From TrEMBL:
InterPro entries: DUF4357 (IPR025579), GmrSD_C (IPR011089). Residues 191-238 form the DUF4357 domain. Residues 5-124 form the GmrSD restriction endonucleases C-terminal domain. This is DUF4357 domain-containing protein. It holds the Pfam family GmrSD_C. It comes from the Bacteria. It comes from Muricoprocola aceti.
Length: 270
């Protein structure tokens, strides 16, 4: 998410668990990863989180994020959890500015199990406070339509898996206003065709549209190179690749309207 939106959500969450006394100065407020983005090989983090896919899945989840003042965040390093708590998450008096950060400081360790349980707790809190009607512990049924969402570079899109393994972007989804240099020319041309044909009007999909893969859909929507299996997520933060897995095989379009036909650009190319 853009920093402004991300910071707002973290601030609202902190206000849910605090007594209302915290001050959210936009000039000082920032967010720090507990599990660092690039832990050193052989470090405690590397030992606690040996599965790189699991590490990538939880890295940017809300359970792994804590609010800090910019002063603290500028000094943050990839030290072990105990050192990080003492040196960066607290001031010299052993006090933190935010309740969310205090909760993390009170944890003895920071393992995948701890983060997973914290994620469920925080999602349940959002569900209660914002009346979202979401049960974070509910398992998905194999036959239900699972909705995925993407919000990068100002876009706001929703989609689902097609019967043949395709990916359907829903009408009303918005795209990023422009493209970056990482967006391949072929995708830029397809974007232009969708706009010229009235499928996208004023940055909004006017109808459901079928793409050959989640990555193809993510590139068109986000206007940059994207791994759709990671970037399309459910409302409770589960990645497409984790939910759908590798069982869905791409098949021919059989006449289905799409610019991405069999043999075209797929996940790896995107």
């Amino acid at each position: 998410m853009p920093s402004r939106r991300r910071n707002y959500i973290i601030q609202r969450l902190d206000s849910f668990v605090s007594d209302g006394g915290a001050k959210y100065d936009v000039k000082l407020f920032t967010i720090e990863h507990v599990l660092p983005q690039n832990p050193e090989k052989g470090s405690e983090w590397d030992q606690l989180w040996p599965d790189q896919d699991e590490r990538a899945f939880w890295l940017n989840r809300i359970a792994n994020l804590v609010p800090l003042t910019r002063k603290h965040n500028s000094a943050a390093q990839n030290y072990d959890f105990a050192t990080k708590k003492k040196s960066y998450f607290q001031n010299k008096g052993g006090i933190t500015s935010y309740t969310l950060t205090t909760q993390v400081v009170n944890e003895d360790s920071w393992t995948p199990e701890v983060v997973s349980e914290r994620q469920k707790t925080l999602l349940a809190l959002f569900s209660e406070k914002w009346d979202l009607k979401i049960d974070p512990s509910e398992e998905l049924n194999d036959d239900e339509e699972i909705m995925f969402h993407l919000a990068i570079r100002g876009c706001n899109a929703s989609g689902c898996v097609g019967n043949d393994g395709s990916f359907i972007v829903k009408a009303g989804s918005t795209i990023a206003r422009d493209t970056t240099p990482s967006c391949q020319s072929s995708y830029i041309e397809i974007r232009k065709n969708l706009i010229d044909n009235g499928i996208i009007v004023d940055g909004v999909f006017t109808q459901d549209y079928v793409f050959d893969s989640p990555s193809a859909a993510a590139v068109i929507v986000g206007g940059r190179s994207a791994n759709g299996r990671r970037e399309w997520t459910t409302l409770d933060g589960r990645q497409y690749g984790k939910v759908v897995g590798h069982k869905i095989e791409r098949s021919s379009r059989n006449g289905t309207k799409s610019y991405f036909q069999s043999g075209g650009t797929g996940d790896k190319a995107a």
